[in-house]
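Ligand-bound model needed. NAP.
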Amino acid sequence: MIMVGPGTGVAPFRGFLHERRARGDTGPNWLFFGEQHAETDFYYREELQAMHQEGFLSQLSLAFSRDQETKIYVQDRIREHGAQVWKWLQEGAHFYVCGDASRMARDVDTALRQVVQDHGGLSADAASDYVVQMSKEKRYVRDVY
Ligand SMILES: NC(=O)c1ccc[n+]([C@@H]2O[C@H](COP(=O)([O-])OP(=O)(O)OC[C@H]3O[C@@H](n4cnc5c(N)ncnc54)[C@H](OP(=O)(O)O)[C@@H]3O)[C@@H](O)[C@H]2O)c1
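Prediction:
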């Protein structure tokens, strides 16, 4: 399960993680979280870091947009880890996005298509078909607002 939940979008993923842990699910979990400042806006920091340290949250990728001069967003982290994201997708990962609809979800969608294209060695059209197929299989699901 790959979860992209910057800002308030992290809330449902906290629930997903608790549910998976309670059920004893063993599949790997990867959370991309972003906010403006790590110091003040890292929601559920202790809980998420503890899950990461114990290995239940296999990957925790963080993007604090205003902690440095140049903004860093979750989609930058997705691109940085493109090869691994592609590997997870090929192994059947579900890709969930929650949060801002107007900019974030659009830009994450673009990054997802780019990763599929670059790391899958696909044309833009074939990458688009791959993402459509993921949606049909309910492996690409968004709750954006
Ligand atoms: N939080 C609230 O109380 C509240 C209330 C009413 C409505 N909303 C709406 O709910 C949605 C989500 O808001 P939110 O408070 O959860 O957080 P957000 O506004 O989505 O911000 C969360 C993080 O996403 C970053 N971001 C900005 N543009 C982005 C992009 N194109 N791609 C990826 N990340 C981007 C922000 O960076 P920068 O800000 O540094 O650019 C920030 O680090 C927004 O549409 C917001 O207008 C929120």
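Residues 6-9, 34-36, 65-66, 71, 73-75, 99-100, 102-104, 107, 145 surround NAP (CB under 6 Å).
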